[in-house]
Amino acid sequence: MTTGARRRMGVEERREQLISVALDHFSHRSPEDVSIDEIAEAAGISRPLVYHYFPGKQQLYEAALRRAAEELTARFVEPREGPLGARLLRVMERFFDFVDEHGPGFSALMRGGPAIGSGRTGALIEGVRQAAYEQILAHLEVTAPSPRLTLVVRSWVSLAETTALLWLDGRKVPRGELERQLVHDFAALASVSAAYDDGMADVVRTLLEKEPPDGMFADLLARLPALAPQQV
User: Fold this and answer.
1) pLDDT tens, 113-159?
2) In this structure, how many other beta carbons lie within 10 angstroms of the beta carbon of residue 158?
3) Nearest to 34 by CA among 65, 3, 6, 78
4) Please, are residues 216 and 183 in contact by the beta-carbon 8 Å criterion?
5) Is residue 43 within 8 Å of 17, Cβ to Cβ?
6) Distance (Å, rounded) from C-alpha 171 to C-alpha 198?
């Protein structure tokens, strides 16, 4: 499908159009299955003109990944107001919105796609992870995280990523349940670490003190007693 009557565009405007078209294609199909001819047709230009702006498919693919990385990073930005559990849930909802909208593109971004091994692609992925890590620390109001807190936050970011990738393979678990579960996972990781470290214990106590009776972390605490063995 073309964009209609052609019109002259400036260099940057045309580049942005091609990136948007490429991202749309890569978001719905595996990058290996998308051709330059399809992108050119969707943009309403000739194949040679695509190569005028991007030396090859690899460069266009990386530009689309960069756009996806920027958009995904923005999903982790959340106002620092209200209980942390509610904030994390909103972040997970936006995160899964992105995953839902850009399934193959998300997989390509996180797994590297045909650009696997590329330093540039690796840097994009790490940039998303680092931004998510820094956002969580900011919500915790921690500027100098301890090694254990660093481990908890980075492990949770990795868990969210892995969970989303597995969910895309069949979507067998309701998305809303996974979003809530991931918020509970954060509390669980922090709580287990708190059992071994006084500093983490202080972090968890602060979180729970600010959590309302009907909040996300309180919901987890209410669910746990049901797992205890029944006394005979």
Assistant:
1) 554 446 777 788 899 999 999 999 999 999 999 999 999 999 999 99
2) 13
3) 65
4) yes
5) yes
6) 39
